[in-house]
Amino acid sequence: MGEFDLIARYFARPGPTAGATVALGIGDDCAVLTPAPGHQWLVSTDMLVEGRHFLSTVSPRRLGHKALAVNLSDLAASGGSPRVCFLSLALPKVDEAFLAGFSEGLFALADAHGVVLAGGDTTAGPLNINITIMGEVPHGQALLRSGARVDDDLWVSGLLGDARLALEVFRGTVSLPGEAFDAVRQAMELPQPRVALGRALRGLASSAIDVSDGLAGDLGHILHRSQVGARLHLADLPRSSVLGGMPEDLQRLCLLTGGDDYELVFTAAAQDRSRVLEAAREAATPVYRIGRIEREPGLRVVDGEGRLLDLTLQSFDHFKS
Amino acid sequence: MGEFDLIARYFARPGPTAGATVALGIGDDCAVLTPAPGHQWLVSTDMLVEGRHFLSTVSPRRLGHKALAVNLSDLAASGGSPRVCFLSLALPKVDEAFLAGFSEGLFALADAHGVVLAGGDTTAGPLNINITIMGEVPHGQALLRSGARVDDDLWVSGLLGDARLALEVFRGTVSLPGEAFDAVRQAMELPQPRVALGRALRGLASSAIDVSDGLAGDLGHILHRSQVGARLHLADLPRSSVLGGMPEDLQRLCLLTGGDDYELVFTAAAQDRSRVLEAAREAATPVYRIGRIEREPGLRVVDGEGRLLDLTLQSFDHFKS
């Protein structure tokens, strides 16, 4: 099978490739997009490499899901409504089973969020997946990292740390019974981007970021860009019952520096507490209050008794770990 | 050096990262773009892999140029005005000499075309470069592959075949004296995207495509999408004096199936001949009339005496050649 057959068979779909947003999709030099009046575009791009962002053991279907999910998560953190994506795929060879599974997983998630695959590129080469996602937001309403204010509440969605726990099992440093492993593995391989929550937080959250490199590091970006500090309550960090049953040190590692969580961490004025809970209910996404923004720069993590923990934290860095 | 230092040192520039189009560039989850009223967005993405799209012998500076040039070429073929790009880069290791050269080459071309690098991603992994480019075009004026009409003139810009000739030298099937080799190597490594020409052809060309996989194959996409055929005059195909001095068979191979030309092939009504020449003059880009669109499907190549050539042509396919 050649390049054009491959695109035609697995990635070009006659159905939803033209509509209000996409005037022209796959099949020309460029896709043509018509912006909605009064809106801005949000754009993000993520490159996934085997051994860094996924393991060789992942199923193609789950990989297709995850490749799009990590991009949707960036869009969610900005409060965007997803519209289109562009897929670049380098493959060592044309592997039809891989392509069938990968495209199924990708399109299932794309369809769930109304995203159209409007273009891309395929080539032979070491396995590499790059997706660029575009979404829209009403003018001036994008959620940024830079808006956190002193005394804002600090919130996080969903559960933290399961993906890292799964990685530790794959690395052989932890062992888990089959069912527990399946659960944390699903967190690692099938993250659910918090698109509905991000949208519901427009005009409400003062700042937001998605947790992809670990809570401490990603929260650090908010603090840095907002020129504030934060106090985080370790005991309030939401965790699964599987992770909650692990040794204290491992829990901390997974919760604070885990990576691959794809939850949203965000700030909002304390007076908006009930509005945040209402937005979360609308978005059918659990949220938890985990701390507070402070004037003093830096991140302080306290235990259940309010004691400051001495933590040297390292968030995930693709050229360091 | 870590991922964030790398981005700060080589890719984040304080100057032109915010303006009319880019409300927010590098440094948040998404870039925020403000569309110009009455315009559509054109988007294209290209992935470059060593050994497929460039050789290990290319200088980092030229590679940075080429990675953006191939994307700008897609935009040129659609008649777009370039605005922003997004760079994903997988590198085996942090190589500062590579990064310095690569980013210099990329930014030199970006600046020449007013393109802002508004975001991206970096990771460790086998060398892979993916750029997504976005440009704008007045609503409804994008040049498409599908508009060629019977009796339209067939045009091409610049010179064809030199990049392929350079590749044959690298492959050892041809040898050239130093100066001639430098010239064709420059065509391969420093292609000049025809952005000004594409823009000048808005409302004038009935169809267009950029020649990246070889003239015959890329023209074939216009014929297929426009449901027409074409007659091409081999003797009229523009070539450098270096290529013109090569054996006839090699010339044909390079001119018709070369690849990596990044010239525009386009069609326009015969009555618009002088307008096309005027547009080319405005864009300071030479153009050549090389044939005509015909009703009968397929591509017919004729020699200087008008004799039909029997050619079995194969355009470049990343999973075949």
Automatic annotation (TrEMBL), chains A, B:
Positions of the PurM-like C-terminal domain: 186-302
Domain PurM-like N-terminal: 27-137
Residues that, per the record, bind Mg(2+) 5: 213
Catalytic activities: thiamine phosphate + ATP = thiamine diphosphate + ADP
Binding-site list for Mg(2+) 4: 29, 44, 74
Keywords: ATP-binding, Kinase, Magnesium, Metal-binding, Nucleotide-binding, Thiamine biosynthesis, Transferase
Binding site for Mg(2+) 3: 29, 74, 210
SUPFAM superfamilies attached to this UniProt entry: PurM C-terminal domain-like, PurM N-terminal domain-like
Residue numbers binding Mg(2+) 1: 45-46, 121
CDD domains named among the record's database cross-references: ThiL
Gene Ontology molecular-function annotations: thiamine-phosphate kinase activity
Annotated substrate binding sites: 53, 260, 316
Entry similarity comment: Belongs to the thiamine-monophosphate kinase family.
Record HAMAP family: TMP_kinase (MF_02128)
Additional record remark: Reaction mechanism of ThiL seems to utilize a direct, inline transfer of the gamma-phosphate of ATP to TMP rather than a phosphorylated enzyme intermediate.
Function field: Catalyzes the ATP-dependent phosphorylation of thiamine-monophosphate (TMP) to form thiamine-pyrophosphate (TPP), the active form of vitamin B1.
Protein's recorded name: Thiamine-monophosphate kinase
Species, as recorded: Roseateles terrae
